[in-house]
Specification:
By secondary structure, the chain is of the alpha+beta class. It has twelve helices and nine strands. The strands form two sheets. A seven-stranded mixed beta sheet has the order 1-4-5-9-8-7-6, with helices on both faces.
Length: about 350
């Protein structure tokens, strides 16, 4: 028997004795490292195989593999034994206890109303368009027939961005409505156009029960030949009856908006509000697109007519769910959110 063969057999016997005597997992890992680690005793003996005479290499090589595999198996068996012992000494598991139900997430109430609103308009043939939240004065005001001296353009109402102004379109700002999407769409394509533009908008408002400096809108635009107020009224009535209640009543009141002429405020009367003694509530604005808006986007005079509307998503959600404070939508109180 060669000296290396004897050393391998001695190392195996010593390692197996130490493995058997390990009382815990850290001690077992130390023994494993001492014999099978990169600097371990068995590993060092294996490195000597290259210096053996040719006729001894097969015999010693087989023995070396046997030792290595035997010690690895002994370590695994001891580890399993120690883990089982540790588990047995832990707290008892009552298998008769019922399982714990996972807490299910759900969509935010604003997301629910947003998605349902878009679905209703898609069923009526409207496409969905999007645009940047940081806009410029021309797309947000000038192209929408809103003059430079209009109060909505004051810094008391609009959040301007501290950047050098665009050489053609003026100062940058956070959009106050999603109407600029309508301008961008009309500049990109010719009628017929039937779109809705949902998104987040920004106003310089102090937060209270009915105001927020950031909220969500969906605005609609329909442009074609011979579009009338009757088309607008029918679309608006269908939408509110689908979203809120089939018995919802809708009325139009004359109003003024720079970008529509004639312009209307939309009032609603729902069974829920009538039961509480409140006949009508103001909900949105709309009207026929002003000819100056068509000129701004390059449409020929008298070729097309169209209408536009704008709804606040938070306002719709508050009416639908009977919520009285807009701040609840952004406070992330799970007790509130899990009701929807």
């Amino acid at each position: 028997m060669s000296e290396l063969e004897q050393q391998l057999r001695d190392a195996r016997a010593a390692a197996e004795a130490e493995i058997a005597g390990c009382a815990d997992l850290p001690a077992l890992e130390q023994v494993k490292a001492r014999y099978l680690g990169a600097q371990g005793k068995v590993t060092g003996l294996l490195s000597q195989l290259g210096g053996l005479p040719k006729e001894q290499k097969p015999v010693i090589g087989r023995l070396a593999n046997e030792v290595k595999h035997a010690l690895s198996a002994a370590v695994a068996a001891k580890r399993e034994q120690l883990e089982a012992k540790a588990s047995a000494g832990g707290p008892a598991i009552d298998t008769t206890l019922p399982g714990r139900r996972h807490r299910l997430g759900r969509l935010h109430p604003l997301t629910q109303v947003f998605d349902e609103t878009i679905r209703i308009f898609r069923r009526m043939g409207f496409a969905v368009e999007d645009g940047p939240e940081m806009e410029d004065e021309w797309h947000c005001f000038d192209a929408l027939n809103t003059p430079a001296n209009h109060p909505a353009r004051d810094i008391q109402d609009t959040l301007y961005v501290d950047l050098p102004p665009h050489e053609k379109y003026g100062r940058y700002l956070l959009r106050t409505h999603t109407s600029p999407v309508q301008i961008r769409t009309m500049m990109r394509q010719k009628p017929p156009i039937r779109i809705v533009a949902p998104g987040r908008v920004f106003r310089r408002d102090n937060p209270d029960a009915t105001h927020s400096p950031t909220f969500h809108q969906i605005e609609g635009l329909y442009v074609d030949e011979n579009v009338t107020v009757a088309d607008l009224k029918g679309t608006v009535e269908f939408f509110f009856r689908q979203l809120l209640d089939p018995d919802t009543k809708v009325r139009f009141r004359p109003h003024f908006f720079p970008y529509t002429e004639p312009s209307f405020e939309i009032d609603l009367s729902t069974p829920h509000f009538r039961a509480r003694g409140k006949e009508w509530i103001e909900i949105a604005g709309c009207g026929m697109v002003d000819p100056n808006v068509f000129r701004a986007v390059g449409y020929p005079d008298d070729a097309y007519t169209g209408w536009a509307f704008g709804f606040g998503i938070e306002r719709l959600a508050m009416i639908r769910y009977g919520i009285t404070d807009i701040r609840l939508f952004t406070e992330n109180d799970v007790r509130f959110l899990e009701q929807f």
